[in-house]
Design a protein that fits this description.
The protein is built from 8 helices and no strands. It is mainly alpha-helical. The chain starts with a helix and ends with a helix.
Length: about 130
């Protein structure tokens, strides 16, 4: 959870948006932070939580954090995956499932894009 708060803190420093806009997307942010490991996380549902369209949610999200909700979720998942891999308890497939990515090949691709190395190599290096 500490990493999540670090990410949120860093992202919130990025851009200022009026409090009214932030409060509009806060239900989605809270939901993401509590459910980012859910592989069935639905982007349309995030918009429903805020009673706005997904495109408007995404626009405000980018305005606030500088990244889309999808990238935000991916960053949370990869950071959590790093913690799981560092523990040495879980293999790459288990880690992918635990962070909410059901396709291990996709997990490998995304992890490598974010971390600069495949998850197996990361696990062995820490």
């Amino acid at each position: 959870m500490g990493i999540i708060y670090d990410i949120i803190s860093e992202l919130q420093r990025k851009k200022y948006i009026p409090e009214k806009k932030f409060l509009l997307i806060k239900p989605a942010i809270d939901y993401i932070n509590n459910n980012f490991t859910n592989s069935n996380l639905s982007y349309p549902y995030l918009a429903e939580l805020c009673n706005i369209s997904y495109s408007y949610l995404s626009r405000i999200f980018i305005e606030k954090f500088g990244i889309s909700p999808q990238k935000y979720i991916t960053q949370l998942r990869i950071n959590y995956a790093c913690d799981l891999l560092k523990s040495g308890i879980y293999n790459v497939t288990q880690t992918a499932e635990l962070v909410g990515i059901t396709d291990v090949y996709f997990f490998n691709k995304v992890f490598k894009e974010q971390m600069g190395m495949p998850p197996g190599k990361y696990r062995n290096s820490v």
